[in-house]
Amino acid sequence: MNVVSFGGGTNSTAMIIGMHQHGIPVDLILFADPGGEQPHTYEYIEIFNRWLSAHGLPKIITVYKTDKDGNRLTLEQECLQNGTLPAIAYGYKRCSLKHKIGPQEIFCNNHPQCKEVWATGGRVHKFIGYDAGETRRVSHAAPINAADKKYEAHYPLYEWGWTRQQCILIIEEAGLPLPGKSSCFFCPSMKKAEIVALWEKYPELFQRAVDMEHNAAPNLKTVKGLGRDWSWEQFKEAFFENKKWEAAQITLDDLFRDSPGGCLCGAPCGCYDG
Predict the structure, then answer these.
(1) What is the distance between the alpha carbons of residues 42 and 241, in angstroms, rounded to a whole number?
(2) For 111, how many CA atoms within 13 A lie in the half-sphere containing its CB?
(3) What pTM does this model have?
(4) 115-156 pLDDT, tens per residue?
């Protein structure tokens, strides 16, 4: 029984394409949705599903966390209800365990084929998209995998020696567009350039992330916001203030061409040597 963990990004997409090319059977493809992925990820799942069907592979099954009554509980809802930020903002990885790993395990626990494998004392084969450059992650997972009685983990990209760049080429050669990065729109691990791209492309999602910061603010003690020691709202304000300063500096350069860079005092005296 081969189960693929699909993260919605480049590595897991290339891994599935590679498994098909290498003749490795794919029985289940699971995508754990925390409910806050950016729109391009949801759109890509539909695109990739068409490719999977055309190549005789199973479509992606979306799984998600539920509350004790069986109702869906997104990570955003959980944070707003509890007045907190995603656990990674505090240095923990509970959001991944609860909204990524947990829902996939629950699904497999109730899947007939998985249950048959375990009933005979076997292990379900789980395929994970760590590429050739992720030696540390593979090494770290080794002792955990060895002790796991239910799953046998496989890292085909690592075994094939496929780098991130090779994964990109494989996707393009398959006639597919690149999936873009998969992450929640309020993920504290996002880089500043990605945050800028978020408010430019999806301003309403950026505002929801800021609203999450506001909602959690009364309970924050060790962190200041989604940036851990800075808030996304403060970052955006500082970003535009800096843009205003840059625009003003360009104006000074145009006014005082004999004094490159202008003068901090606003006069062409050339007293600033920067």
Answers:
(1) 34
(2) 20
(3) 0.85
(4) 999 999 999 999 999 999 999 999 999 999 999 999 999 999
